[in-house]
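User: I'm new to structure prediction. If I give you an amino acid sequence, what do you actually give back? Let's try with this one:
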Amino acid sequence: MNRRGFIRQGFKAGLAAGVASMGIIHINKSYGYSQPPAPLPWDLVAVRGGEPDAMFDQAIASFGGMQQFVKKGNSVVIKPNIGWDSDPSRAGDTNPVLVSRIVRHCFDAGAKDVYVFDHTCDNWAKCYSVSGIEKASKNAGAKV
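Assistant: Good question. You get back a string of structure tokens that encode the predicted 3D arrangement of the chain. For your 144 residues, that looks like this:
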């Protein structure tokens, strides 16, 4: 591909991504085009002052439940922050209780498989273990 062709293809891809992100079209799982889902009353929910799992329950309920995002038979990848070889008390990584709750909500919504994955900054085996996310995810039924 020459430079001009590369620029044309890049422009087309960027335009398609921009149009899709504006909600004009929705690319579904089978890569076909359909109408966007019905709009929710809000795009962002903030919940403060509680435990991570309870706050997530309240926030996801505000969006109509996880079934708004996960359909029966879907495979889901959850990408928490597992970047550091750090225990949960230091809050360097996503709280393992929160990750576990998200996994459970995905399964409750009908997910076939749930995967938990991150590209770590420190040694990956230590990060997954010390953060508590590996154990919490597996206990909730996810593949890590």
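You can read the tokens as a compact description of the fold. Here is one thing that stands out. Helices lie at 3-21, 52-62, 96-108, 124-130, 133-139.
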